[in-house]
Amino acid sequence: MADGAPPPRLQTRPRSLGVTAKISLGLVGARGHVGAELIRLVAAHPRFELAFVSSRERDGQRLADHEPSYAGDLRYTNLDAEAAAGQGADALVLALPNAMAAPFVAQVDARAPATVVVDLSADYRFDDGWHYGLPELTRADAAGKRRISNPGCYATAMQVAIAPMHDVLAGPVQCFGVSGYSGAGTSPSDKNDPDKLRDNLMPYSLTGHVHEREVTRRLGLPVEFMPHVAAHFRGITLTANLHLSRPFDLDEVRGRYYAAYGAEPLVEVTGDTPWVSRIAGRHHAEVGGFTLAADGRRLVVVSTLDNLLKGAATQALQNLNLAFGLPETMGIPA
Ligand SMILES: NC(=O)C1=CN([C@@H]2O[C@H](COP(=O)(O)OP(=O)(O)OC[C@H]3O[C@@H](n4cnc5c(N)ncnc54)[C@H](OP(=O)(O)O)[C@@H]3O)[C@@H](O)[C@H]2O)C=CC1
Ligand SMILES: CC(=O)N[C@@H](CCC(=O)OP(=O)(O)O)C(=O)O
Q1: pLDDT over threshold 60, residue 2
Q2: Which of 55, 243, 253, 306 is the most interior residue, by most CB within 10 Å?
Q3: What is the mean predicted confidence (pLDDT) over 22-37?
Q4: Residue 215 belongs to a domain with what CATH number?
């Protein structure tokens, strides 16, 4: 999918920001798992500052009482779309459940079109007018984009695993994914119920998951995705089965992954098979475990990432840094 240019009404330039001036961010969905990770990242960032954090449930409560990493006086506030767009923040980050972003985007378009919007949900990932921000694969198109859709967590892991072999695939890619239950958000469901997950692995959405459609669209080839949720809190293991158009040996496979990611600070190619227990709380993705079938024409690749970080908040921060012309990894811990 080509990243379309923003529509003409969005061409207004952001207000001029000095070299060291703070850049203000408003966050809607601030109570959630992803919102909380973003607050921690922004609290420690040298250039961004929180202008507001919106939550219905915590309206009026002190942010510092919930997020000790934040030292200021801000309180949660319950802002509707019009009020959020009217705050004059340089960027608006939407960390709401799916299907809720549109009113916020409409209000920003109408009232403050120069505001940078980063949406964490799936709502604009299929919209050619929005930039799809998976920087390791799309940063060449990032300059000047002010409507940015953050990829899905599994979708990031799948694309990291598949992209280096994209030109030699002979058919659909099968992906088996296992997520920690923080992936299911905070609204109670079987998928985030620790009692139901104990000693269990829960398959769900076994065809047609939004991330299956997302990756199929982004890579332009069919991906067959089978997600599961497990008893751990955070982190994804994604095992991809790639049918190849010619035989490969392992050196050539590894060479492709090192060529793609060797210089990437947030994607690590590993000799060993990545383990989810080693990625929880880390900001990068890992890819490795390269295993070829005897005929060299079937490759299995494993990627891991923390769904709340590289799968969501860290990637959003990469996208925000790029949108404001800052170094892409500014404020992202090693
Ligand atoms: N969890 C993950 O691993 C990942 C999540 N995402 C996406 O990021 C977004 C946020 O996910 P996550 O943090 O897990 O979700 P949570 O369920 O943890 O949080 C949702 C947030 O949205 C607010 N909210 C819920 N319903 C409404 C509503 N009707 N109107 C206004 N605000 C509402 C909640 O606060 P309050 O009720 O107080 O208003 C809360 O702050 C989702 O779109 C998700 O798909 C993307 C990648 C990974
Ligand atoms: C375990 C679990 O339920 N995971 C979520 C992850 C999706 C997500 O959060 O991403 P979106 O932004 O695309 O909704 C799911 O499969 O729906």
Answers
A1: no
A2: 306
A3: 98
A4: 3.30.360.10
Shared domain for 291 and 177, answered yes or no, is yes
Respond yes or no: is residue 153 known to be catalytic.
yes
| CB-based contacts of 189, cutoff 8 Å, min separation 6 | none
Strands 173-179 and 236-243: antiparallel
In whole angstroms, give the CA distance from residue 59 to residue 93.
18
What is the separation, in whole angstroms, between the first and last Cα of the chain?
31
Complex prediction ipTM:
0.97
| Tokens read off for 306 | 């923390």
286 shares a domain with 227: yes
The model's pLDDT over 117-130, given as tens digits with 9 standing for 90+, comes to 999 999 999 999 99
Question: Could you tell me the distance, in angstroms and rounded to a whole number, from the CA of residue 238 to the centre of ligand 2?
Answer: 14
Which residue among the candidates 28, 81, 101, 153 is catalytic per the annotation? Answer: 153
> Which protein residue's CA is at the shortest distance from atom 43 of ligand 1?
121
227 CB near ligand 2 (under 6 Å): yes
**Residue 233 CA to ligand 2 centre (angstroms):** 13
What would the two tokens of residue 227 be? 């997600």
Nearest ligand 1 atom to alpha carbon 56: 39
Atom of ligand 2 at shortest distance to CA of 229? 1
Place 47 in a pLDDT band, splitting at 50, 70 and 90. Answer: very high
Is pTM beyond 0.90? Reply is yes
Are residues 110 and 197 located together in one domain of the fold? no
Q: pLDDT tens digits for 112-160?
A: 999 999 999 999 999 999 999 999 999 999 999 999 999 999 999 999 9
Pair 266, 237 in one domain: yes
Q: Is residue 210 lining ligand 2, measured as CB closer than 6 Å? A: yes
Is the pLDDT at 15 greater than 70, yes or no? no
The reply to whether 318 falls in a domain is yes
Residues linked to residue 268 through DSSP beta bridges, in sequence order:
286
Tens-place pLDDT, residues 205-239: 999 999 999 999 999 999 999 999 999 999 999 99
Give 243's strand partners: 298
Is there a domain that residue 276 lies in?
yes
Cα of 77 vs centre of ligand 2, distance in Å, is 26
Any domain includes 334: no
Find out whether the beta carbon of 57 lies less than 6 Å from any atom of ligand 1: yes
Range of the domain at 13: 8-151+312-323
Question: CA 82, CA 60: separation in Å to the nearest integer?
Answer: 19
